[in-house]
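Private note to self, pasted from the team thread so I don't lose it. Backbone tokens:
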């Protein structure tokens, strides 16, 4: 491991970077004028109770903007070194972070996937305790293709999946596999909540696949609507389902 990587993975450096990232996210949240769909969503969201906020992986930082002061929101972050910085930042945004692997693939329905069962149990406990769970829906390393894991969570918990998109007019797009997007301050923003989707406890393979496609389509729809509200185009469209190299060079900014 290079000297730069060793320094970057040291606890003091990661703590400092996490705190800095948290302050930055708070700045972006405060300085963008957000349009919310549906308008005045509080009664609607409160009526849903704890739900599963579905997001595409590239929004795993800005999804924290959906949190209202009284909301209790939890999410899963891996135990990787990079996850340490995200954990510190999201904690400062009021999100409770669980460190575990997420529930990935249909095999998790039988609790056999390595690491997936642990994450599934943690998210089920959070929902049972009244916390909304924010969960990335992508197949690992495949952007914008819905994985079965989020439907497994909905099936076992009985809680609805609500696709969510949070975008800003000014942002940086990273050249990562998930085409991660980081908002910039002093612009316009949009938060769009999609149609709640329930997954029955007893569901056959064909119906399960139809629900997976429905979640995927609704996530794409709310993203399209959110970008339209800020007068931009979602540049990930067209590169969808393409596996990107695992480097993190910064792309274009707007």
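Design output:
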């Amino acid at each position: 491991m290079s000297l730069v990587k060793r320094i970057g993975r040291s606890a003091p450096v990661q703590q400092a970077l996490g705190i800095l990232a948290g302050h930055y996210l708070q700045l972006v949240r405060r300085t963008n004028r957000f349009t919310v769909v549906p308008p005045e969503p509080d009664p609607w969201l409160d009526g849903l109770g704890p739900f599963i906020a579905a997001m595409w992986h590239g929004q795993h930082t800005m999804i924290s903007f959906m949190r209202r002061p009284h909301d209790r929101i939890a999410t899963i972050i891996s135990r990787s070194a990079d996850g340490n910085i995200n954990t510190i930042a999201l904690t400062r945004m009021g999100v409770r972070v669980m460190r575990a692997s997420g529930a990935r693939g249909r095999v998790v329905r039988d609790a056999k996937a390595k690491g997936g069962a642990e994450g599934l149990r943690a998210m089920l406990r959070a929902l049972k305790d009244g916390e909304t769970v924010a969960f990335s829906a992508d197949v690992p390393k495949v952007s914008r293709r819905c994985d079965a894991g989020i439907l497994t969570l909905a099936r076992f918990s009985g809680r609805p999946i609500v696709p969510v998109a949070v975008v800003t007019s000014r942002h940086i797009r990273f050249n990562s596999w998930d085409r991660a997007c980081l908002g910039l301050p002093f612009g316009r923003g949009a938060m769009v909540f999609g149609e709640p989707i329930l997954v029955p406890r007893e569901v056959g393979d064909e119906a399960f696949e139809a629900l997976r496609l429905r979640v995927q389509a609704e996530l794409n729809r709310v993203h399209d609507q959110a970008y339209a509200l800020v007068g931009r185009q979602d540049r990930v469209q067209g590169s969808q389902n393409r596996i990107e190299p695992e480097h993190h060079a910064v792309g274009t900014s707007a």
